[in-house]
Amino acid sequence: MSLDPPTYLNSLQNNIRARPIPWEGAVRAGTIKENDLKRIKAVDKVRKDQRRQTVEADQYAYQSLLLGGDQGKSVLESAAKRADVIQYMLVLASDLVNDVPSLASTLFEHPSPYKPFLPLLSHSTNPEDPIPLLTSSFLANLISAVPIDGSKPNPQTNEALPKLYSYLSTLTKSQDSGLQDIAVQEYSALLRTKKAREMFWKQRQDTVNPLIDILRAAAGAGRDSDSTMWSGGASIRSATEAGLGGGVGLQLLYHVLLVIWQLSFEGSLIGKDLEKYLPSPSHIT
After folding, report:
1. How does DSSP assign 1-38, residue by residue?
2. SS3 per residue for 169-203
3. Rounded to whole angstroms, how far apart are CA atoms 221 and 243?
4. What is the pLDDT along the chain (285 residues), one digit of tens a residue?
5. Which of 93, 132, 222, 265 has the greatest number of CB atoms lying within 10 Å of its CB?
């Protein structure tokens, strides 16, 4: 299911796309290589069909640009001290994966497809820092483009996904509904396979618990309160008529329920435990 991109993230990405980057100065300073700049300019600020044709004609050059290779480091590693370049390249990388679907498979052919990206998730403890936000968006796009196949173990993705889940959990635990919605939508994009859902459930203290807290807040129930919503003294209809509590908007609530629904596909693994988190159906009238 395709979801509209979170408003805050979409606005952030558009602002970064519009920023002028002094690329030639970055080359002179040794921040990026001349060949890297040529590849960037060939796909930057061009039509999607032109971008797709350019990348498809030389996919391994763009694999090297983003991930590094025999000719040197990834542009993200080379520009480690230039936050503006890193932000711009993270947005461009997401655009490339979205606009050129075959590039994701080429990136996964690299022996270390996550190496330049995972350290960026811990770039800052500030939940509004653009670099981890943009990194998580790219990784969610990349992983969901080539879903985990449980029959074909992927050690790199199996190692990366828990780190991505952990970062996203910091957003769901924040008090900012915009950041929460970014995390929940990225969860939904990732939870398309059995393996991804199993790994999500394994980290349920960090992943599932905050989602249940959002549901409780929407119902006007605190973690330790005896809310009439959960005890059966109120109905979904009366809660809706009164409006949602805790500053939870309908869009965020929908996305959280979508993630819970995706988890329900693993009923044999999590069914009974998941029931402990949710109100009994007999209490919802």
Report:
1. ---PPPHHHHHHHHHHHTS---HHHHHHTTSS-HHHHH
2. HHHHCCCCHHHHHHHHHHHHHHCCCHHHHHHHHHC
3. 13
4. 455 678 899 999 999 999 999 999 999 999 999 999 999 999 999 999 999 999 999 999 999 999 998 878 999 999 999 999 999 999 999 999 999 999 999 999 999 999 999 999 999 888 889 999 999 999 999 999 876 665 565 789 999 999 999 999 999 999 899 999 999 999 999 999 889 999 999 999 999 999 999 998 888 755 544 444 444 444 333 333 334 666 788 999 999 999 999 998 887 777 667 766 665 444 433
5. 93
Phi and psi at residue 89, to the nearest 5°: -70, -30
The H or E element that residue 52 is part of is helix 48-57
- Which string of DSSP letters, residue by residue, matches 55-110? HHHSHHHHHHHHH-BTTB--HHHHTTT-HHHHHHHHHHHHHHHHH-HHHHHHHHTS
How far apart CA 143 and CA 79 sit, in angstroms, is: 24
The CA distance from 61 to 33, in Å, is 13
Residue 183 near residue 168, CB atoms below 8 Å: yes
CA distance 186 to 45: 26
Question: Do 120 and 131 form a contact (C-beta atoms < 8 A)?
Answer: yes
Query: What's the Rg (C-alpha) of the chain?
Result: 21
Residue type, 3: L
